[in-house]
Design goal:
Length: 204
């Protein structure tokens, strides 16, 4: 399986990092070794002094496909969960200044925790109106709604599939809203999807 991530998909997050608004989805990948599952803790890597949390809605791909048209994109995922795109912000800034890829700052081991359960698509009344949030030590840091995406689910799936074939079991991180910030040892991160606690994570 592969982890496909969408960058710069919420205008307020783009503004907080002083980035340009992209005309097309920004794509990067994480390897399978980035996954954290079943409540495993996240260990801060020694190569960064500034790890940031980025909570995201995650789509679970349910069948193989390529060159998918937007009207049919909804048939290619069957469940939605939560994930955190941990980012070594200090390393990312250095790489961006040099015009280099972000992978070292985004794709390191353990950088992609996901919720142990995903909710079936049928459970959502409106895929364009999904609320989610992240609390850090009981304080809300990030709140988002899928209606605020610059590129909605169907556009993401259609765009990605023109370049990268989707396979059953792939995960698509769909972008993070504003409120990203640093984590430190001892932090407790809790993610909620439509008010339901879906993700709990300890930082060590």
């Amino acid at each position: 399986m592969k982890i496909i991530c969408i960058g710069r998909n919420y205008a307020d997050h783009i503004a907080e990092l002083h980035n340009e608004v992209p005309s097309a989805p920004v794509i990067f990948l994480k390897p399978e070794t980035a996954l954290l599952q079943r409540g495993q803790p996240f260990f801060i890597p020694e190569f960064s002094q500034d790890i940031h949390h980025e909570l995201e809605l995650v789509l679970r791909v349910s069948k193989n496909g390529r060159h998918i048209d937007e009207p049919f994109a909804h048939t290619y995922f069957d469940a939605i969960g939560l994930g955190i795109d941990f980012t070594a912000r200090d390393l990312q800034s250095e790489l961006k200044k040099k015009g280099l890829p972000w992978e070292l700052a985004k794709a390191f081991d353990g950088s992609a925790p996901i919720s142990p359960t995903f909710k079936p698509v049928a459970d959502f009344a409106d895929l364009a109106n999904i609320n989610f949030r992240l609390d850090v030590n009981g304080e809300t840091r990030q709140t988002g709604n899928s209606s605020l995406m610059l590129h909605p689910f169907a556009k993401i799936i259609s765009f990605v599939s023109k370049y990268i074939s989707l396979k059953m079991g792939d995960l698509i991180f769909t972008g993070t809203p504003a409120g990203v910030g640093p984590v430190k040892m001892g932090d407790q991160l809790t993610g909620y999807l439509e008010g339901e606690k879906l993700l709990e994570l300890n930082v060590r």
